[in-house]
Amino acid sequence: MSKTDPIADYLTRIRNATRAKHRKVDIPASNLKKEITKILQDEHYIKNHIIIEDSKQSIIRIYLKYYEDDKSVISGLERISKPGYRQYVSKDRIPRVYNNLGVAILTTSQGVMTGQEAKRRGVGGEILCYVW
């Protein structure tokens, strides 16, 4: 379990589960992870997710999505901004991921959103990760 970078731990758990062809993965919950999971579902990278409430810490159960040939919809995940080196971009510098085939997830002053949504709203922020 990663104490210093929970977002990298979140992405690694999803990456490992897709490579092992698991149908679901359980991840310790936080508000930021819940928002990232909502974005992944809205962008059709995962089937569904549920929040399992617990007395200690909630758990996010993510149901992964696969094509008919058992190839994962998520081809790759990459952590961009790290605890020791934060990556911030202005609204004009928001990157395109794989020529808009992937999605950049940002945290902004208006909440967590995709790079395209941030461009539409005219805000910049910290680039959390790329998903394609």
Please, could you describe this protein's structure?
By secondary structure, the protein is α+β, with helices and mostly antiparallel strands. It has 2 domains: 6-64, Ribosomal Protein S8, Chain: A, domain 1, CATH 3.30.1370; 77-131, 2-Layer Sandwich (Dna Ligase, domain 1), CATH 3.30.1490.10. Helix content is 25%, strand content 30%. The chain is built from 3 helices and 8 strands, in the order αβαββββββαβ. It has helices spanning 6-19, 31-42, 115-121; strands at residues 24-28, 46-52, 59-64, 77-79, 88-89, 103-108, 111-114, 125-131. Strands 4, 5, 6, 7 and 8 form a 5-stranded antiparallel β-sheet that branches. It has a 3-stranded antiparallel β-sheet with strand order 1-3-2, covered by helices on one side. The model has no long low-confidence stretch (mean pLDDT 96).
Layout of strands and helices, then pairs:
Layout: H1 6-19, E1 24-28, H2 31-42, E2 46-52, E3 59-64, E4 77-79, E5 88-89, E6 103-108, E7 111-114, H3 115-121, E8 125-131
Antiparallel strand pairs: 1-3, 2-3, 4-8, 5-8, 6-7, 6-8
Number of helices: 3
Query: Would you identify the regions where 5 or more consecutive residues have pLDDT less than 50?
Result: none
Overall SS class: alpha+beta
Structural domain count:
2
- Beta-strand portion reads 25-35%
What general outline do the C-alpha atoms trace? globular
Q: Quickly name the level 1 CATH class of the largest domain.
A: Alpha Beta
CATH topology of the largest domain, by name, is Ribosomal Protein S8, Chain: A, domain 1
Number of strands: 8
* Distance between the ends: 24 Å
CATH-defined architecture of the largest domain: 2-Layer Sandwich
Determine Rg (CA atoms, Å): 15 Å
Can you give the helix content as a percent range? Answer: 25-40%
